[in-house]
Amino acid sequence: MLLKTKEAIHNKVFHWAKEDYKVLVNLEVKNNDFKNVRLNFLVFSIQHITDISREEIIKELKEKIIFPCLKQLNILWDSKTSWYINSSGSFQIGGLIADTGVTNRKQIADAFGPAVHSGGGGLCGKDLTKIDRLGCYFARWVAKNLVAAGLATQLELKITYAIAQEIALSYEITFFENLKKTQEEVIKIIEECFPTKVSEIFELFTSSPITFSKLTEISNFGNFIPNLPWEKLNRVEIINEYLRRT
């Protein structure tokens, strides 16, 4: 899709498009059978000029990029497939003007290195309004409290977000040791025991002052810097109370 978008911009097929665009696809594959792959959701953001509506952008992208690619790759979609195309509305400021000067030290540099999966987002040069930074801290907080509550001895949590969406698109346990509940039960615990709206997570994590320069200097994780909100084990009792009720 990205290659076809690049070609379409270069060949003036999209008169309205600028060269800042990104795509995320979530595919449903059953039993490692890649013959019947279904598109669960698609996120497509593309920078554009002023004089075009979001409806026109969606129509052109689907007709000229998205649907042809899906058909070419034999990827199915249906009425339950979700489409998040420029879901923030306007995307007029992008490219170097929007991002020049951001150091953007990657998540993996401050996490567990190659021992865990990484979404590739950044932890520096941006505040907590950026979901790759906020979401990373949130995933850390959730996983740490689930382990502390005795639900597993190790746990890796994958959370998928999309631009301008109030809640996560999906949660997935991608690695665990000694997990005491099913994946579905753990996700239910997350939804019941933690704030799930991005705005609520942001308010919670910014309710006390954080010296972000210290995070860059020392570490984003662990107890090297005291009282980081995503390092607190303040959901353990809430989780245990929920488990007692259920």
Automatic annotation (TrEMBL):
Residues 5-91 form the S-adenosylmethionine synthetase central domain. It comes from the Bacteria. One of its GO terms (molecular function) is metal ion binding. Residues 93-232 form the S-adenosylmethionine synthetase C-terminal domain. Gene3D superfamilies: 3.30.300.10. One of its GO terms (biological process) is S-adenosylmethionine biosynthetic process. Pfam families: S-AdoMet_synt_C (PF02773), S-AdoMet_synt_M (PF02772). Keywords: ATP-binding, Magnesium, Metal-binding, Nucleotide-binding, One-carbon metabolism, Potassium, Transferase. PANTHER family: S-ADENOSYLMETHIONINE SYNTHETASE. This is Methionine adenosyltransferase.
